[in-house]
Design goal:
This protein is an alpha/beta fold and 365 residues long. The chain is built from 13 helices and 11 strands. The strands form 2 sheets. It has a 7-stranded mixed beta sheet with strand order 3-2-1-4-5-10-11, sandwiched between helices. Helix 1 packs across helix 11, helix 5 packs across helix 6 and helix 7 packs across helix 10. The longest helix is centred in the middle third of the chain and has 22 residues. It starts with 6 loop residues before the first strand and ends in an 8-residue tail after the last helix. The mean pLDDT is 96. It binds 6-O-phosphono-beta-D-fructofuranose. The site of 6-O-phosphono-beta-D-fructofuranose (F6P) has 11 residues, from loops.
Length: 365
């Protein structure tokens, strides 16, 4: 190691970005400075996630690099998707990725590496931990689908943005008596759509965990129209499936959608509603807007708490864990417990039941 009593801490951000990454980086760094003294801490920033670790794209950072980043969206380190399933594969470029990552870690004399990311990042983080590196994970994603934590940073900001989008759709849908079908990100999990749908007052919420029957969706729109409400808001998770699709393999499903000229579930739901009811249906795609911009106040607090916990773990030399929120308390879970798992919405859980109790349709009955 190139340093004496100083702690050298590497930080990377992996996978899709989200609001709160910079706030978390700031939280960790500030808490480390407090805990160990600024003069005893050196931060090494790894660019573009594991891609940068493989290629040794790292830089020693100054305290001033972390000034003013609490409110900044995205990540000051850059991020990139580096699929876990290819990590142990030596491809045409002949690069042994795991060896290279370990070499970079050693070359920089790191005492530990913090990996801020979602499920993919946690898988590789666990792999590196099993390879003997000192790793601490921090749970980031707008999808909120990391196992073992009730919440991930970035999620609530995305809920706020999605809610604002639905609020705005309400007024225009009402004016034109239209059915607005809004597609919400979230990968294979329905958390973001469920929370956004409830907060925005969506009439129908379709999520991957509850395969829907198109006839029930159409009936829900018609029921509203019969009671004089000629507009409806349908919040659809990008991964939502109807009951027929749920029984298909992904390849078959993708092919069927392409044949029908409906590449997304949202397009299909809108077309079918329009065909069956005669009401004009429009699709809306907030897409990456849900991931952009400044973190909400909630996420700034969460990011700061998570960051401070990570600093605490570094201080204690407790590695191989990822920070988590359990029963409203900040804690940590072993990386080996979290990697390879995903947290899904319980179709019988309290949020779904609450929504059903106020008459929201999930298209399943
Ligand atoms: O994991 C976050 C997420 O935004 C998902 O909700 C979405 O499916 C995916 O990333 C989109 O990824 P990309 O930005 O790489 O297209």
């Amino acid at each position: 190691m190139s340093h004496s009593s100083k702690k050298r801490i590497g930080i990377l951000t992996g996978g899709g970005d989200c609001p709160g990454l910079n706030a978390t980086i700031r939280g960790v760094v500030k808490a480390c400075y407090q805990l160990m003294g600024e003069e005893n801490v050196e931060i090494v920033g790894v660019s573009d996630g594991f891609y940068g670790l493989i290629r040794n794209h790292c830089r020693l950072m100054k305290p001033s690099d972390f000034y003013g980043i609490l409110t900044r969206g995205g990540t000051i380190l850059g991020s990139r998707r580096t699929p876990y399933k290819k990590m142990q594969l030596v491809e045409e470029d002949n690069v042994d990725k795991v060896k290279q990552m370990k070499d970079t870690y050693k070359e920089w004399g790191l005492d530990c590496l913090l990996t801020l990311g979602g499920n993919g990042t946690h898988k590789t983080a666990n792999l590196l931990s099993e390879e003997g590196l000192n790793i601490i994970g921090l749970p980031k994603t707008i999808d909120n689908d990391i196992w073992g934590t009730s919440v991930t940073f970035g999620f609530h900001t995305a809920v706020d943005i999605g809610t604002d989008a639905i609020d705005r759709l309400h007024t225009t849908a009402n004016s034109h008596s239209r059915i607005m079908v809004i597609e919400i990100m979230g990968n294979k999990a329905g958390w973001l759509t469920l929370y956004t749908g409830i907060a925005g007052g969506a009439d129908i919420i379709l999520i991957p965990e509850i395969p829907f029957n198109m006839n029930h969706v159409i009936a829900a729109v018609q029921k509203r129209a019969d009671s004089g409400k000629y507009f409806s808001i349908v919040a659809v998770a990008e991964g939502a499936l109807d009951i027929n699709e749920a029984a298909m393999k992904k390849k078959e499903r993708v092919q069927k959608r392409a044949e029908a000229g409906e590449n997304t579930v949202t397009a299909r739901v809108a077309n079918k509603i329009q065909e069956a009811t005669g009401y004009e249906a429009r699709t809306v795609m907030p897409g990456h807007i849900l991931r952009g911009g400044s973190p909400s106040a909630y996420d700034r607090v969460l990011a700061t708490k998570f960051g401070a916990r990570a600093a605490n773990l570094i201080g204690k030399g407790k590695f191989g864990y990822t920070v988590a929120m359990v029963n409203d308390e900040i804690t940590e879970n072993p990386l080996s417990d979290v990697a390879m798992k995903q947290k899904f919405v319980d179709p019988a859980g309290k949020e779904v039941i609450t929504a059903k109790n106020i008459g929201v349709s999930f298209g399943d009955e």
